[in-house]
Amino acid sequence: MIEHPFIAAIALVLILEGIMPFVAPSQWKQMLVQISQMSDKNLRIMGAVMMIVGVLIFKIIQT
Question: What does pTM read for this prediction?
């Protein structure tokens, strides 16, 4: 069992976030340009949806 689940979660985030720049760096850059051009409102909505989905997944795996 993992003794430090928070550190394990951070490690998993870093692994997942590193996949795209490693596998497809040019597409990753294009995606960053597109994201930087989004309105603040749309970015907030996207962030809220991501957090809600994350919480739901977390709750599902804890049951």
Answer: 0.72
